[in-house]
Write a structure and sequence with these properties.
The chain is 2% helix and 54% strand.
């Protein structure tokens, strides 16, 4: 999910993409039916990049670009089973639990050299100074890394039990969702674990049982937004400052 240039919340789901007004009880402004599962939405300038899995075989990922009027302007397919996507340094960077290296593409879909990695990658976000942060569920770690091809370009590593989804707030802090525990881990831009927050009362039993029901999360203006099969949840946050 992502906020558009117009300030609307754009959320992917199974067989569709919805544009919502979170200031008006999540009123649906536009709804588009698709074939597949729109699992990630990221903003780029006034556009939105949407990643879609096919309904049957998850060996490819379709990338769709929307303009500021929520109209499709580009579509292309990559031979990668993506876990998540982000945009950093004007590149689309793709994490995958089915591949070791992170994949890179231009905004037009041209292949760029891989970012070398020797583990898994799930949730991923773009950060300033041509860096990315991503979760490695196999190692139970979160890493911040330069957008370079070398394995050694890691700036810091933080231990998190079974990290999966992640997002970054306006202060540059990372919010990492664990697939093992019903909590979020808050990490500073410098790689310091600030605290674990949020308990099971903020998730339904179905969400705890099946984390694949999640369609992204975002922190915005003091609220945590979680997309899942039944819609969007919004939770007011109270946490320690950096």
């Amino acid at each position: 999910m992502a906020w558009s240039h117009k300030g609307h919340l754009v959320v992917g789901r199974e067989c569709g993409i919805d544009v919502l007004d979170d200031k008006d009880e999540f009123k649906v402004i536009k709804s588009v039916d698709i074939t597949g599962r729109a699992f990630s939405v990221v903003p780029y300038k006034t556009d939105l990049i949407i990643a879609i899995h096919p309904q049957i075989k998850r060996s490819t990922t379709t990338f769709v670009t929307w303009n500021r009027e929520y109209e499709e302007t580009r579509r292309w397919v990559a031979n990668v089973d993506a876990s998540d996507i982000t945009i950093a340094n004007h590149q689309i960077i793709v994490s995958s639990q089915a591949s070791t290296n992170l994949k890179r593409f231009t905004l037009a879909g041209n292949i760029l050299p891989d970012i070398e990695w020797d583990g898994e990658s799930a949730g991923i976000v773009g950060l300033p100074s041509a860096t990315i942060a991503f979760a490695d569920p196999k190692r139970c770690t979160v890493h911040r890394k330069l957008i370079g091809e070398r394995l050694s370009d890691v700036l810091w590593t933080v231990d998190v039990i079974k990290p999966f989804a992640m997002c970054v707030d306006d202060d540059g802090c990372l919010w990492v969702r664990s697939n093992k525990y019903d909590c979020l881990t808050l990490i500073s831009p410098q790689g310091i674990k600030i605290q674990d927050i949020m308990g099971e009362q903020m998730m339904t039993a179905d969400e705890r049982r099946n984390p694949n029901n999640w369609f992204g999360m975002r922190v915005h203006n003091g609220y945590l937004y979680i997309g899942h099969d039944d819609g969007v949840g919004r939770y007011e946050l109270s946490y320690d400052s950096v």
